[in-house]
Amino acid sequence: MPSQEIKDKYELVVGLEVHVQLLTKSKMYASDSTEFGNLPNTNISVITLGHPGTLPKVNKRAVEFAMKLGLACNSEITRTNIFARKNYFYPDLPKGYQLTQDKNPVCVGGIVPITLEKSGVKREIELTRIHMEEDAGKSMHLAGEVDTLVDYNRAGVPLLEIVTEPCIRASEEAYQFMAEIRKLVRYLDICDGNMEEGSMRCDANISIRLKGETALGKKVEVKNMNSFRNVARAIEHEFERQIELMEKGETIISETRTFDATTGLTAGMRTKEDLNDYRYFPEPDLSPVVISEDWLERISESMPSLPRELHDRFVNDFGLPEYDANVLTDSKEIALYFEELCGETKNYKAASNWMMGPVKSYLNELTLHIEDFAVRPKHLASLIALIDEGKVNFSVASQKIYPEMIKDPSKTPLEIAQKLNLIQESDEGSLKPIVESVLAENEAKVAEYRSGKKGLLGMFMGQVMKKSKGKADPKVANKILTELLED
């Protein structure tokens, strides 16, 4: 492993290619089902398999999903979209070519803002393009078997490929970019973002150069990464591996490599030519798809609130810390629930604490979705109001009232508190006798307090809470205690 001093001489240059599988019910150019988990080779037809005489047809919903992602990334939307054949031969490609976009991608340029967690630094990752294409099938190399099995169910499933400029300079930037893309596609409801199921995949093009140089070095493409963390690990390993080669005076080979998550190492698969000859040519069986002004406007008007917009609103309008805003916008449904909650209460920080604490703990413990959460924002806001008004404390609210709200969401927090006799006693006239009796029972401790042992105040408070069965308002009780002890 090169030393930090040697690593500091070099600059990492990374460009990512992210494939997102679209949540359409049918394939990109055929009506076959896209349902995941079906028996192998059941979601296929003569069109998917490219039989002679069959004609493809573009999936309108897939085009609309592409437009949504482009608008979310501030890309320029291409109005006349022509599809192309990308010719290569591989067992999982039934037609012997892939239908994609070549010279005119549906989205050109664009940016994806990211925030680095460690430093808080904000950056904009520049996009080269987003284009529509179909997925290939899946080859399965079973342990101990000589033959390779091929499942064509995935062949033809709609994909968007998001290609960045070679502008990423650290593995953390790649990690945060992937996380932001997953947020976007989930907020837009165009992809579930599950890397484990292959519905979001990433290839990383990695090269290095001496700091100050402008020419790009020989790039290595790393494939087969099934998590954000593995993308970051592969980049870190390649950075060090390529530096070692450069320091030894050896040549970096432009090749495709695979990443082993167990060892954290990459291994060569095949060398890459300077330019892959895919013999692109316009698909003769598909007419251009023209995106009209009206169509684009309709899609633009249907756009939901995006994670960055909600994040900025939570920070600027609700006064939340960056950390809270990041956690709350990680999930679209959590963010929208919180936004509705803030329409019912002005104590935004308390609302955030409830969402990140008791609510998320409950959902995680039972592996539930926020849509399965029985307590509506209006009732949760009422519980926050009970605390703010001094009628109950947080401990009583979270441990006694909140569980009852989950059991019976039709009852208000006040009804539950009254039924369980949990409303705090805030009347000084009612609390003073309780405080006086506690002090009378602990004359020796009172003397110690007055002689300088101020830490005994907590003991007195504990006795007051015990005598009042937890119903004494801590603020009022503390005030009366202090006045009597200092008298």
TrEMBL record:
Domain of life: Bacteria
Documented EC number(s): 6.3.5.-
Alphabetically ordered keywords of this record: ATP-binding, Ligase, Nucleotide-binding, Protein biosynthesis
Reactions this protein catalyses: L-aspartyl-tRNA(Asn) + L-glutamine + ATP + H2O = L-asparaginyl-tRNA(Asn) + L-glutamate + ADP + phosphate + 2 H(+); L-glutamyl-tRNA(Gln) + L-glutamine + ATP + H2O = L-glutaminyl-tRNA(Gln) + L-glutamate + ADP + phosphate + H(+)
Phosphoprotein in keyword set: no
Name of the top EC class for this enzyme: ligase
Self-association state and partner proteins as the record states: Heterotrimer of A, B and C subunits.
UniProt-listed PANTHER family: GLUTAMYL-TRNA GLN AMIDOTRANSFERASE SUBUNIT B MITOCHONDRIAL AND PROKARYOTIC PET112-RELATED
Protein family (similarity comment): Belongs to the GatB/GatE family. GatB subfamily.
Protein name as annotated: Aspartyl/glutamyl-tRNA(Asn/Gln) amidotransferase subunit B
Organism this protein belongs to: Echinicola rosea
